Fold this protein.
Amino acid sequence: MCECTVSMGRDGEHGTWCVSCGQKSLDVEVRPCGACAYYTKDPLSFSGAVGICRKHVMRVIESQNVRYEVSVGTCWSDSL
């Protein structure tokens, strides 16, 4: 995997690519956080669309699509 630190997106495509070597470094998960097994609704959310990612212990929006490092892979899971 590329060790470069500068990446840019491309028109019409998801993710970012290294500006030096051209390898894809980041991608976007196409499945929303709300459909992930790590997602749980936040009882303090007024709209009901805000939840908590139990894997990363952070607040996320139900329809959010996360960005991830291609070398590590996606954090999305359909079962625990």
Summary: The radius of gyration is 15 Å.
